[in-house]
Amino acid sequence: MGIIKLKNIRTYSYHGCLIEEGKIGSDYTVNLEVKTDLRKSSISDDLKDTVDYVLLNRIVVEEMAIRSDLLEHVAHRIITRIFEEIPEVSRIIVAVSKLNPPIGGDVEAVTIEMEEYRS
């Protein structure tokens, strides 16, 4: 088994419960970790034998482009798509961070993290 990590995927997105957040947007980062079997690809040196991180990145970017009120909702969509499109993935951890959130204080980021296993 093995782990593939994509760190600090940066997007400019329009999530949030406030009307202004949907209009002006904000900076976000996403960290993604997937568990899969890397033994075959470690021997074959062939992309078809592993999880393509270009596809993982595309899923994250596409789902971050769809507006949601809650970061949890975005994370759930990312998890669902990865499980639907990449059967080799057995576990996903995704963390979605809103940078400089408008919460009335000097806060660098608010992050939610979700972990799911293939059922």
UniProtKB/TrEMBL annotation:
- Mind telling me which Pfam families this protein's record contains? FolB
- Single GO biological process annotation from the record: tetrahydrofolate biosynthetic process
Q: Which GO terms describe its molecular function?
A: dihydroneopterin aldolase activity
> Could you tell me the keywords of this UniProt record?
Folate biosynthesis, Lyase
> What InterPro entries would the database entry show?
Dihydroneopterin_aldolase, FolB_dom, GTP-CH-I_C/QueF
Please give the GO cellular component terms listed in this UniProt entry. cytoplasm
State the family it belongs to.
Answer: Belongs to the DHNA family.
Stored PANTHER family: DIHYDRONEOPTERIN ALDOLASE 1-RELATED
The protein in question is named 7,8-dihydroneopterin aldolase
The beginning of the lineage is: Bacteria, Pseudomonadati, Bacteroidota, Flavobacteriia, Flavobacteriales
